Amino acid sequence: PRKVPPSMPGLWERAANDDRPQNPRLFLIPNTPEVFIGDGDPVINWHADRRKDYEYECELLGIVGRPMRRVPVDQVKNYMFGYTNTNDISDRQERAPDPIRQDWLVQKGWDSMKPVGPFVVPQEFVDPLNMRLKMTVAGQQVQDSNTNQAWHSMYEYAAYLSNMLTVPVGTVIGLGTPPGSHGGLGRHMIPGDVQVCSYEGLGTLTNTLIAEPPRTTTSSR
Q1: Coil, helix or strand for 35?
Q2: φ and ψ at 108, to 5 degrees?
């Protein structure tokens, strides 16, 4: 049988017949007010004349309620404050034509790329291990899945992260989207596309993609 390499601290070893990644994949998003927007706010396609590869992903967002350091997976629930919807917008063009790719900051860190909402539900009323998600873009259903299909659970992500650093109160952790559950639109988004992201019990997050408004002479963007 295949020998599974040891996990980074925080997670148990996976079975030899489990072909999921051994450890969660993590990246940071800038903690700036302009990156995170609310329900009904527009997602802006910056430089829309040159960057047109915008995609969506309906994700579960967990909010940390107590500082976390080396928290076991089975204890993470006690450290979470609540949950909400988020739409993980990505500019798949990222650094192209630069041959160095997989730059998550350039893909996902632009202003307005992280819609969140419409409200936060306390963790006592949420089962992040088994939540149905649905998403439509331009009226077309593009996602219909469940968090039980994710490679790693919200609790595994948080435990793994807490073994790397002290996770402060207010940190938001995006679960990612279950595999095989996006791409149903068959094209990249275009200005005017309305995105509706909803996890069971968390309300509906609705945002519309618009082209970058004309810049004024005083704009720094």
Answers
A1: coil
A2: -130, 0
Instruction: Calculate the alpha carbon distances from 115 to 110, 144, 146, 214 in Å.
Output: 12, 19, 20, 22
Token readout for 108 is 């996902």
Alpha-carbon gap, residue 72 to 162, rounded angstroms:
9
- β-partners of residue 68 are 167
| Host H or E run for residue 198 | strand 194-199
Question: Which pTM value belongs to this model?
Answer: 0.88
CA distance linking residue 129 with residue 60, whole number of Å? 10
pLDDT in tens, 80-92: 999 999 999 999 8
Angle at the Cα of 86 (from 70 to 185), degrees rounded to 5? 125
d(CA 39, CA 48): 22
Query: Encoding tokens for residue 80?
Result: 């979470």
Tell me which residue has tokens 């992040």.
128
Q: State the residue for tokens 């030899």.
A: 16
CA 172/CA 167 separation, integer angstroms: 10
